[in-house]
Specification:
417 residues; alpha/beta; Rossmann fold; seven-stranded mixed β-sheet; six-stranded mixed β-sheet; 12 helices; globular; disordered N terminus
Length: 417
């Protein structure tokens, strides 16, 4: 697939032009969001000489940047993605790096707010001079950051979101690792209707671009079966204000509820539902942050289903999972395997593959061409396929549930537990 090549502009011009586009996407102005945007990095230096042909590359290292929630109600998602990426980078660095260069990551905290994602992305591109962006967490933040990245011609790799807009063939700098939310919600509806012949399905979603993307996917899956949601609930992003939405859900007397949200509000919804005796089957989307959800729910988690877009993170029979477990233990011995950090690890491995295709002189164009040119890429048993008009590597969706011990198990079907 062709790669858009832009002549470099001045840093100030890039910032101004893209800031207008990004703010139009999120409907806000700079400086409104809270949070700390100090960089977290494994490097003692955060700038690269302006004279280099490839920003973020010198004789010693290749520098990547990440904007993610590292604090606030969605922090587990950003922290786990960062952990997985760093585990992959530490693994390759321990073996000499890529073409003799270490891979390093600067992570900035956007607290899952679009305004901060814009500021962070500009900082990573203009001040930190990163080679590529990786592991952006969330749909609303990605929607704000992508115009900035596109204007700068910088690769935007493996965002932690299944949003449809990122999969448009109009993008030439975006590389998606995971299956889409539309594929996850299709699997949810297929399993609910086929496994239990459920006819009354409700939807609860976060009131932003992420939630609406999940809502649209679930509605489309229902419409393909001549169905409509029996009730719909809404809650505001970065809150646990779910009670009004919960009341709206109960009005439809659903047998199952598809939930599109992050772990704290989803846990609050399910806990309150159990408390008032409202007990449909709950099934939620991979972005929820599975390990964090199970911890938040405790005993109330039994029987909650979650779709995943990566394999089970303790299944050593899959070579890439075995490599991930070993890499995680080497980088962070006290960390427990999780679906989110496994996705981060796979994202890091994807970036490594792209760099390896470039040889000793990596450029952004070479990196993107190496990933998006087409064909099957196998990351130790996790296949990815890209090609013309297809910037999404994996279409796989895995079903899991929380058992009575508060732990996840793989599931072949949905059943009442």
């Amino acid at each position: 697939m062709g790669v858009r090549r832009r002549r470099p502009r001045t840093l100030r011009a890039i910032g101004c032009g893209t800031l207008v586009l990004a703010l139009a996407a999120c409907g806000s102005t700079p400086g409104e969001g809270p949070g700390n945007t100090e960089p977290t990095t494994t490097s003692s230096a955060t700038t690269v000489p302006q004279s280099q042909a490839a920003p973020g590359v010198d004789d010693q290292r290749v520098l990547f940047g990440q904007s993610a929630a590292l604090s606030g109600p969605a922090q587990e998602l950003g922290l786990e993605m960062r952990l997985g990426i760093n585990a992959a980078f530490h693994e390759v660095n321990s073996n000499g790096g890529v073409a003799g260069r270490r891979l390093e990551l600067i992570s900035l905290d956007d607290t899952y707010e679009p305004e901060l994602a814009i500021a962070n992305t500009l900082q990573l591109i203009e001040e930190e001079q990163v080679f590529a962006l990786i592991g952006e967490v969330g749909t609303p933040t990605s929607r704000s950051a992508t115009p900035v990245a596109a204007e700068a011609g910088i690769p935007f790799v493996a965002p932690f979101t299944g949003a449809a807009f990122l999969r448009s063939e109009s993008w030439t700098n975006i590389v998606n690792l995971r299956a889409s939310y539309a594929q996850e919600t299709e699997e949810m509806v297929a399993r609910l209707t086929q496994d239990l012949e459920i006819e009354r399905i409700a939807i609860m979603y976060q009131d932003d671009s992420f939630g609406r993307t999940g809502l649209q996917g679930a509605q489309a899956a229902l419409e393909r079966r001549d169905m409509q949601p029996v009730s719909v609930g809404i809650y505001p992003r970065n809150t646990t204000a779910i009670k009004t939405g919960l009341i709206d859900l109960t009005l439809g007397n659903p047998e199952a509820v598809i939930v599109v949200g992050a772990y704290r509000p989803v846990a609050a919804l399910i806990a309150w539902s159990r408390h008032i005796g409202f007990d449909p089957i709950f099934i939620t989307i991979s972005f929820v942050g599975s390990n964090a959800l199970a911890r938040e729910l405790g005993p109330d988690g039994k029987g909650v289903f979650v779709t995943q877009v990566v394999p089970f993170p303790t299944d050593r029979s899959i070579p890439v999972v075995a490599s991930y477990i070993d890499a995680l233990a080497a980088y962070a011995p006290d960390a427990s395997p999780s679906f989110v950090s496994l996705e981060g690890y796979l994202s890091g491995r994807l970036a490594i593959f792209g760099l390896e295709t470039c040889g000793p002189e990596p450029t952004r164009d070479c990196f993107l061409d190496g990933l998006l040119a087409g064909g099957i890429m196998d990351i130790d048993g996790f296949p990815l396929t890209f090609g013309p008009g297809d910037n999404q590597g994996s279409d796989r969706v895995f079903l899991t549930f929380i058992n009575s011990e508060g732990e996840y198990e793989p599931a072949q079907e949905i059943r009442r537990i």
